[in-house]
Design brief:
This protein has one domain: 3-Layer(aba) Sandwich (Aminopeptidase). Helix content is 30%, strand content 29%. The chain is of the alpha+beta class.
Length: 206
């Protein structure tokens, strides 16, 4: 198993760490996704027939690499420090530079790890990295109106509700309305900003 980043990494805290996917992650990734399939499918686009196969994972990694090289996206897997176990993933997509300096996030959590605060930790860890290291001004997220846990994560991490987008994304084969949220760099710098959730010190860096 690849060596995890040190706790001093900007994408690591006392509980979890984030890093880009690699070939060595296939077994953990496929097992977690397969075990959580019924839990995840209602919230995701339709899975391809070979989605969980080694070939499907290689194709996914190739797309991730293209997106990273072009600056369009940043994919991350989420690991627990205590056992280096893969617990979920979070993707930064649709990165727009120039006058926008914005991006969208989407995330998933394995069924056995949902409801324990891991995703709130993850989003709280990722936001300062996106604002301070990547230089973004705005981060957006969308969730289904029925996805209360996802709304809770966003609200705890300082996102503000902006409205509803009709038939916004094709989820599990159906075009679904989504609730739109965003957080600005200035929102987390304001005196009354929503505190970043953490169980241990999250490193600060310039």
């Amino acid at each position: 198993m690849p060596t995890p980043p040190p706790h001093s990494s900007p994408l690591s805290n006392a509980l979890i760490y984030l890093r880009h996917p690699s070939k060595a992650d296939y077994n953990q990734w496929a097992c977690l996704r397969a075990a959580s399939a019924d839990f995840l499918r209602p919230w995701e686009p339709l899975w391809g027939a070979d989605d969980l196969t080694p070939h499907g994972f290689r194709r996914r990694l190739e797309q991730y690499q293209k997106d990273r090289r072009s600056g369009r996206a940043l994919p991350f897997l989420i690991f627990r420090h205590e056992d280096n176990r893969l617990i979920g993933g979070i993707n930064v997509s649709n990165i727009r530079r120039g006058i926008c300096q914005s991006a969208s996030i989407g995330y998933w959590m394995g069924e056995d790890f949902a409801g324990h605060g891991y995703m709130t930790q993850t989003v709280a860890l990722l936001l300062p990295y996106l604002f301070d290291h990547e230089g973004l001004h705005r981060v957006e997220a969308a969730c289904l109106p029925s996805n209360g846990p996802s709304m809770s994560v966003l609200q705890k991490c300082g996102f503000q509700f902006e409205g509803k987008a009709r038939s916004y994304l094709c989820i599990n084969g159906n075009w679904e309305d989504h609730l739109l949220y965003s957080v600005l760099r200035s929102d987390l710098q304001a005196p009354n900003a929503q505190p970043r959730v953490q169980t241990g010190p999250v490193p600060h860096y310039p």
